[in-house]
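The record is given unchanged here:
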Amino acid sequence: MSHKTTDTSRLQRMGLAKQTAILLTCTAGLTTLIWARDPINLPAPADPVHMSATSLEISLGQSVLMALTNNRSLRVQCMTPEVQRTFEAEQRAVFDPILAGNAAFERNYSATNQLSRDAEDTVSGSIAASQLFPTGTRLDLLLNSTRDSNDRRPSVYASEAELAITQALLQGRPRAVNLVRLQQARIETTISEYELRGYTEKLVADTERAYWECALARRRVAIVEKSMTLAEQQLHEVEQRIKVGNLPETELAAAQAEVASRKEALINTRSNLAKADLQLLLFIAPHMLAGPRAKLLLLTEPAVPDVDWGPVAAHVAIALQMRPDVNQAFLKIQSGDLELVKTRNGLLPKLDVFITLGDTGYARSFGNSVSEIDGQDLNTSTGVAFEFPIHNRAAKASHQRAQFTREQMAEAFRNLDDLVRVDVETGLIEVHRTREQVTATAITRFLQEEKMRAETVKFNVGRSTALLVAQAQRDLLLSQVAEVDTVVHHLQAVVDLFRIEGSLLERRGVTAPGRQPNR
């Protein structure tokens, strides 16, 4: 098998190709997805996908691109970071200015004598603005105007302006405390991006595994079909030799049983091929499941890549930096640290200092009443507000819970580190095992071919039986299938190793959210 057609060489060439941004869709019926921050960028395919009404020619790299573009489950997952970013906007809104206002009309009647009543009208309106700052400072501005009028005297306007400043001195004062919820919302957004990256890696790995399963199913069908042809040729030869009297009729049953066995195996392998194709279509072209079904033609042949895997420590280091679940766990610890900051501040008493400045102007018109607010006769008030629960049990319980949760997450993170090391080393062991099995099964297949050749020669000279020849054919078939199985299983083990260490997308030239390590 030539290494030029291996998946690794194809993906290396794809990685060297010019990167072309393909914006994925996250809504049904669309073909683009606009990301606010980091889109999923796919490498440009080395060759276009050739599709006709009856067939679809596709390579391994093209199947990955199609899965990332067409898979409906990924479209659903793509929306999660966008949903999470709305919580960021919600927390930022806490520090947005608030504008409020009202207007009212009131009429009161007073009796001047038994025959008449005077009507007094009051029209009032106010507008207020307030804003909370991350420093724990709150500003409130109030503008109020009132007009009083009746039938006996001219209208009187009263306008009032008031500015109130409140500053937290203990609870709620540090800037870091007031920004905790916003920072936690941002951390949750980043966590959702790592979750999307992990899902994308799993999708790529599942697609590649499905592709190799299809390739394996095709090779099995080809091997069984060839074995079926050999068995039928053997049966025909036995029948001819029985007719001329060179073999007894007892040899016929063994040859017929072998043909029947090959037919049974062929039925099973063709059924497995149809199932494998169906699974691959689910990943790369789900729209074809309900429409016309095209025959898949795989262009990438399974072959063992020539790779120096290096020490285990190098793969572990990559996993500890790149694995989405590791980065998610680290972000959870950061969120726990922020929760400690918030609950620790809740142990403090609430102590606010405030100052209020106000002035009022009176005049016969609204404009003059406003101009009378010149700040010369300010009404000033200042003071402090204090509040502290006697036992403060709720704040203490929240702080203790935050401490325990933080310790729990730290311990879980250390345990995750251990699991990552075991996963990576296990994956590397599997890669080496399957690579050695490739060599071993190739030798076994070669020896079985020699055994089959020898048994056939002996049968032709009358020193063997049809049963022994059939057994040799069966052993050769099993060895051929085992050889193909080990090659595909090795490629799948390589894909699993890359997924376990979190480097699969980078190795395939796919840029997705959450690619930057968090530590």
